[in-house]
Write a structure and sequence with these properties.
homotetramer, alpha/beta, globular, 6 helices, Rossmann fold, eight-stranded mixed β-sheet, 198 residues
Chain lengths: 198, 198, 198, 198
């Protein structure tokens, strides 16, 4: 994984997702070189860059144009800009499969990564699910109590079996006296695989 | 427990020990109204105040005169100043039972609380052990990897059975969108009871 | 706190609440010798015993008669049986202030402790709130994602400000090679104080 | 990562390292297809399999012949047996670069993974360091307090800068009432890169 400090940051934009959490998300996503990824709420672009390093194509969505500019900078810095389409706007509208007027149409995809949902999590998962390929994965990361529960419930209504993993990381800061352990906020990753049975 | 924000603080002095950790230390100490407590490295005085609320007498030691002034302020604020002797200096010398020149002699005590030891942890425990009453408790709190191990090893050389508890706390910050969980640094409490067998 | 192993247990009945969690609940509850406590879902009676050691009176409720028998055993073992009323039944009905037919009427109380709610958490909090004295406390403990969120939301609808604390504990098992750290399941304590403004 | 339940296990042999920890170790190791990995204390072979899926060659060492048999089974099950040399014996002797009598000589390697060290951690790191290529990585995983400290100290004597990450994972078990969060033991990963300056 790319060290946290190798991302360009902006104090008004959340992220980057910490190294250890990016690592775990990439593992849980099972992303492969053939995959198309949709990254909702890309923020600083930490996960966008990691997905782009492996996937065929990433569609990064954010409502905040400043977040997209920052993601663009980080994609360029890490040499994966050409693999990513940056889309400004509301994920709910962008994912709407019936809105064929959307110029930047997103094809069916393998991974739906939701790091920020502006209160529309349930709808985004449901809309996204329609365009998610069979065996595709939905991944929701959050530090909010409510988001985890909403993700679990929504995935269950879609007959997906959510896996819930809460990750608490402490990192050592080595000082003269020894190794101080400093905590990072616990992140919960809710993930599920689409499994259609014929 | 007293809320964290009810302590007067100073950015150059560590503490106060967070509410939840003070709670756990008080539980593990089994402090009672008859007890005499020695608090080594009192810092802001968070634990000093909590012990003083219950114990008969607390001897608070710190090398840093500014820490003692801050502890004094917090003791006065919380109405328990008269129960505490503040001692500036090196815990190792102050605890030395053979140094009867020390004006502010500390009697045998029930609880040896070590929150800061300036690299002398082993010696402080060993010196303190001599003046610790039978059934008395040693408690060491730390966020350093090395301190835990040193405490465990030293207590074992004294034939004490250390209990090690690592406590990770996250607290909810309620914002418009929901409840963000924010981590506090993990603290490890090593404690042991002196049990002489005759 | 009473060590976990000093409670009589039954594999079919949850509990006792682990020592460190009992410690934190007692701290958060601010229980005092004048207090009346209602303990919903008492299970093994771990928290019931701890509250009874301090409070004036505890009303322990459980749907499961076997849980009440076990709680009774633990109360007797720890010498606090006479301070506790054991009530078999549905907390929702028992707390209903309008049901004056209930023989074992519960007076207004200072602490509403909810350790198990059988799916009725919202209703129990709302019913209980009516009989909770001003400055009284509601405390909900849980290892379930959904319960935390339900507790937070319900307390907010009652204009209470919930405090959310997630506690992860690891305890050292000392073996020949060193100190193995073994995790306990993380427990979340949601608590709030009733504050009427006149 | 391979799900935990896809490994063949034996109650007398530790492991497999849990999925999330394997994920984090693989990230921290930065293992690539050109790499040679030495896996000391392979146990069930969980990490051996993951390394073998990516690396060019893995040398898996264990004192316990039963552990090696189990690792062999898991390597075969996951189709990576041909990439691994299984070596029974004492890591300290096997890593000794001057013992050229050792038939199964290990070439200089890129990653030294130590999951079990039978009390020889310091010596294993020091011996291993000599055969570790420049920019190679040492990784030590442990649930023991003492091991972390020993790893940090030893790496520092070799002028390596240790990174210490403690990982606490809770996983959701979805039951009728909701999502119970169950803890796994916290694992600490100490890692460092060899950086020779000419």
């Amino acid at each position: 994984m790319i060290p946290d400090e190798d991302f360009i940051t902006d104090e008004n934009i959340p992220g980057p997702t910490k190294e250890e959490i990016r690592c775990m998300v990439i593992c849980k996503s099972e992303v492969s070189p053939d995959d198309i990824v949709v990254d909702v709420g890309c923020g600083t672009g930490g996960l966008t860059v990691e997905f782009a390093k492996i996937a065929k194509k990433v569609y990064a969505i954010d409502r905040n144009p400043e977040a997209l500019k920052l993601t663009e900078k980080n994609l360029k810095k890490h040499g994966v800009y050409e693999k990513v389409n940056l889309i400004e706007g509301d994920a709910l509208q962008i994912l709407d499969s019936e809105l064929d007027k959307v110029s930047d149409t997103i094809p069916d995809f393998d991974i739906l990564m939701i790091g920020g949902s502006s209160g529309d999590l349930t709808s985004i998962i449901k809309k996204g699910y329609k365009k998610l390929k069979n065996k595709g994965k939905v991944i929701v990361t959050s530090i909010m109590l409510e988001t985890r529960v909403e993700a679990v419930k929504t995935l269950q209504t879609l007959d997906m079996i959510p896996e819930v993993v809460e990750i608490s990381i402490s990192k050592g800061r080595i000082v003269e006296k020894g190794t101080m352990m400093l905590a990072r906020n616990p992140v919960t990753i809710v993930s599920a695989k689409k499994t259609l049975i014929y």
